[in-house]
Amino acid sequence: MRRIGNALAAFTTRWLPDAFVLAIALSVIVFGMALFLTDQGPMDLVDDWYTGFWGLLEFGMQMTLVLVTGYALASSAPAKRGIARLAALPKGPKSACLLTAVGTTLFGMVHWGLGLIAGALLAIEVSKSCKARGIKVHFPLLAAAGYLGLMVWHSGLSGSAPLLVNTSGHFLEDQIGLIPLSETIFQPFNLVFLTVMLVGAPLLIMSMHPKPSETQEIELDPTDSSATDTTGSSGSGHTTSSGSPSEGTTATQTQAVTAQHSPAERLMHSRIPVAVVVIAGLLYLIPELVRDGIVGLDLNLLNFTFLIAGLALHGTLKNYATAATEGAKSAAAVIIQFPLYAGIMGIMEHSGLLEIIADWFVSFSTATTFPFFALLGAAVVNLAVPSGGGQWAVQGPLVTNAAESLGVDPSIGVMAIAMGDQLTNGIQPFWALPLLALTKLRAGQVLGYTAVVMLFAFATAALSITFLS
């Protein structure tokens, strides 16, 4: 497995371009497929592309806030200390991979947004801790371990399709009614898949760790205080404990210290504004979480939770604003590339290409083989439509109609789409953008390892849904 993983990682590192280039390449490929397989002409497809281009603006902003608020939360002094203690547990490179992979997989089962940001941050902190203790850990492999949550999320508590069909008023309710979670994510075949992934994927990651001579450790940023300061201290060294200028303070620094005592600046350093926001936030947040639990956690509520928790842990608006600014530096890739994927979705949906692909996969299915081919079709479609909720919205009616015509329970169709959608995240750079932004790695350095896990996950999912459903 070490040879296979490293060989594939070496290939993708050399030949797989940056995620930005991949987004454009996918756009061209989907455009070409639509041109040859549908009745749309070139200009029609350009119109379809532009029509969809701005379709993910709300989603893109939500994802940007996941990154910014998650980074700010994790960079608070209490969170740093907690992560540091967790990151200090591994005693060697394999246990570092095991901790990161198991943690990320569990996070992803609870909520995909939590798995996305917490997995990336856990991989980074474990790498830093290991390097500080002289343990050589292959950082790209650890980053791949931090991405595993996106290959189990749709089978977990935040799965878009299972949650949607259990929501009163969903767009297919007249056809399939309400399907409780007991018939989707809590079906034995899905629980078997999750169990095998929780055990097997971390072991697979561990088995791919290269030899010490081939290990690429994390490159620490000398301007990053977390790389050298594990105490959680935030002292700048420019002032004494009383707040007065220290010896050798320049005129500019003296002005800055003086400005801190102005009424406007005092508000930024005061805990009162933060307390007002946190109390108001908790008055809304606690009843919501008590009523619906983790199942009711959507992107907006997740971001709100991250925001309130981050403000509470930082204590002042100044501290939080500084942390959020650092997090925003990593969000550029998400902001720029999401419109390109929205354009791809626009072509797929408006040209009829998505329907052609979905119909092709179910056209030769039987009641026995339908779950497998529906899963395979969803995995392929996810490469061009990497939004679980969006994919269900356009592919759901096709699959439920096919399931009905073949006499298959619609809940199987729901889970086939859900499981297939998550699998190809292992080679789809769309969801890896926040991870790549935080780790400062290229897609090719990570996706070679995740591709190996994806093959394992695909075999597990296919066997589970085919023989246990």
From TrEMBL:
The chain crosses the membrane at residues 20-37, 49-73, 109-127, 139-165, 185-205, 270-287, 299-317, 329-348, 360-385, 446-468. Keywords: Membrane, Transmembrane, Transmembrane helix. Residues 223-260 have a biased composition (Low complexity). The keyword Transmembrane applies. GO terms for cellular component: plasma membrane. Residues 214-262 are annotated as: Disordered. InterPro entries: SCFA_transpt_AtoE. This is Short-chain fatty acid transporter.
